[in-house]
Write a structure and sequence with these properties.
Helix content is 74%, strand content 0%. It has 196 residues and is mostly helical. Pfam families: TetR_N.
Length: 196
């Protein structure tokens, strides 16, 4: 058995259980088994199972949504920001995300966190275009693409997801060019406020 572990390892192990085996497998015995520790170690870090599961979902949101989006928002070049967001989305633990959506359907507190993650991801995509109507459509497209991939019962195909993300990115770039063309000033230069 492992001599020591950390709170972070417990949280990451919970996400790994969700990814590997789904929400129904997220149990204290499974988490401790994977870490090679006793339940006594668990209670050193968490008050009870409810405290742990609350921290798992908060950790997921903070590390897989907030941290990723905050990092992307530091990129001033919109084309690179799009690439950063797409790479972040492609790298998500989609099996865990799917399990979290199942969990959210049964637990109102988890549902609130899932809704916050969806809203944050939508808002990040919404920031990519100046045209509000087009931005809304593309933000929805991005979210539908991501959640559809996570909810399908077909075997996950990461190459197909990458292809779909590439199609999304190409369409988004076409939309940005169209928007810039519409905002061209009298002297033929794009206005400075156009993004992407």
């Amino acid at each position: 058995m492992a001599a020591t572990t950390t709170r972070e390892l417990y949280l990451e192990t919970g996400l790994a259980v969700l990814a590997d085996s789904g929400y129904s497998a997220l149990k204290l015995a499974e988490v401790c088994k994977r870490l090679g520790v006793t339940s006594g170690s668990f209670y050193h870090f968490f008050k009870n199972w409810s405290d742990y599961t609350s921290q798992v979902i908060t950790h997921w949101y903070d590390s897989r949504t907030e941290a990723e989006l905050a990092a992307a928002r530091t990129e001033p070049d919109m084309s690179r920001r799009v690439d950063d967001l797409v790479q972040s989305a492609l790298g998500l633990p989609h099996d865990a995300e799917s399990a979290i959506r199942t969990w959210a359907a049964m637990d109102p507190e988890v549902c609130k966190v899932q809704e916050a993650a969806d809203r944050a991801r939508y808002d990040a995509a919404l920031e990519l275009l100046d045209d509000r109507v087009a931005a809304h459509r593309y933000a929805n497209w991005a979210l539908y693409l991501l959640t559809g991939y996570e909810q399908t019962t077909l075997p996950q195909d990461k190459e197909a997801l990458k292809w779909a993300a590439d199609q999304f990115t190409a369409a988004l770039e076409r939309e940005a060019r169209r928007s810039r063309a519409e905002r061209t000033t009298v002297d033929g230069q794009p206005s400075a406020d156009v993004r992407l």
